[in-house]
Amino acid sequence: MKRKLILPVVALSLSGLPSHSLHAIGLSLQDSIKTHRLEEVQVTATRASAKTPMSYTNVGKTQLQKSNLGMDIPYLLLQTPSVVATSEPGFGIGYTYIRVRGVDAAGINVMTNGVPLNDSESQGVFWANMPNFSSSVQDAQLQRGVGTSSNGSAAFGASLNLRTDNFSLTPRASISVLGGSFHTLRREVSASTGRIAGHWALEARVGRTATDGYVDRSGTKGDSYFLQAGYFGERSVFKLLAFGGKQRTGIAWNGLSPEDEAKYGRTYNSAGHVNPSAPASEARYRENTDNYEQRHYQAQLTQQLSDRLTLSLTAHYTKGYGYYDEYRSQEKLSKLGLASFSQTQPDGSTKKIKKIDLLQAKYLDNDFGGLIAGLEYKTPRLELTAGLSWNHFVNDHYGY
Fold first, then answer.
1. Which end of the chain is more exposed for a tag (fewer CB within 10 A), N or C?
2. DSSP H helical segments within the chain, as ranges?
3. 82: exposed, middle or buried (C-beta count within 10 Å: 0-12, 13-18, 19+)?
């Protein structure tokens, strides 16, 4: 079992002019504009603006939805500068990865509503555990290089700040079905109450994404959900969010050597191929899969203390649990902590066994939670932001 305690961090920033504008998004009522402004306060402290000395790209809801065909966040950001996305199944669903300026996921700070999304142990983000999360993202900002965020992991390569959907002001419901190559199918149902009695709102979205994948036995099946409830006061917003997913994905992380490509073709997957001397379509372990479930919970309070001073508080908790089954060919006994042994052969001779074939299963059971507080003071010529965060992470490993 590994434990990790992340100590409090205080961030302070000054600028000579306001760093962001109100996003009225077509609303005509002043109270509606104020409500959306309060919803944004919790993430603006970690976002760059025109006055911030760094390169960044903002990606809005409209642009995200144009590219949202069921693919994960890295593939939706492919059109932004310096971004390279890769995918084990071959086309952006399941295990996908992002690099910015050549830096891998361990050097990219990722947040959702200001809450760290990076795994506290590996420092990466496993997008496969959040299938179809892109449908629940209002907008994103990608900062290239060292970023403004002091929450979560270090941001040497980039910072990716995601903000989940704003509440709809009017009731709505929708059903979406998308299909594509390799038996890809995404089904999604969403509904919103709009504003109830001027103060309350509820929204829900559930979906299922499945594909066989381009690479052999790399298919994935993922269920997802996004729920949020909110109360809107005259000078405050309180939100409860729950989102997550459960996935089962074929293991395809071994890659493809030039020799295997020439022998078996571009879609060959050595993972689960029991007998290397047999054709790729034969002698394979079909349960060679990764299985994981991740659930996120957030409680957010934004309180406007005065015309110039705003307080934001966030409590968050993430639960992760899963395992993978994998066939391993000719694994060294010494690697397993076992001694070699002698085995009598059919001809009566003795052979020393140092390697064996085996099925392995590795499990993870982790909990991550914390508190984040922010205080923003603004005048026409001055902006002052202070923040404090405390996080705690526990992860159990078992199995081989």
1. N
2. 30-44, 61-67, 73-76, 258-264
3. middle
What are the structure tokens assigned to 353, written together? 């066994």
pLDDT in tens, the chain (400 residues): 444 443 333 333 333 333 333 333 333 344 444 555 555 555 555 677 766 767 889 999 998 888 887 789 999 998 899 999 999 888 889 899 999 999 988 889 999 999 999 998 888 899 989 999 999 999 999 999 876 666 666 667 889 999 999 999 899 999 999 998 899 999 999 999 999 998 999 999 999 999 999 998 899 999 999 999 999 998 999 999 999 999 999 998 888 899 989 988 899 888 887 766 666 566 678 788 999 999 999 999 999 999 999 999 999 999 999 999 888 878 888 887 888 888 888 888 888 888 888 888 889 999 999 999 999 998 988 888 888 999 999 999 887 6
Angle, alpha carbons 199-21-160 (nearest 5°): 90
User: Letter for the amino acid at 261?
Assistant: E
pTM above 0.70, yes or no: yes
Radius of gyration (C-alpha) of the chain in whole angstroms: 24
Please tell me whether residue 30 adopts helix, strand or coil conformation.
helix
Tokens of residue 350, six digits:
């003795």
> Residues near 123 by Cβ (< 8 Å), separated by ≥ 6?
105, 106, 107, 153, 154
CA distance 56 to 305: 31
The torsion of the CA quartet 27, 31, 34, 38, rounded to 10 degrees, works out to: -110
Question: DSSP 3-state assignment of 192?
Answer: strand
The backbone torsions φ and ψ at residue 219, rounded to the nearest 5 degrees and listed phi first, read -60, 160
Question: With contact defined as beta carbons under 8 Å apart, do 243 and 164 qualify?
Answer: yes
Strand 355-379 and strand 350-353: the pairing is: unpaired
* CA pair distance 91, 241, nearest whole angstrom: 30
DSSP string, 376-398: EEEETTEEEEEEEEEEEEEEEEE
**Tokens 């910072």 correspond to what residue?**
159
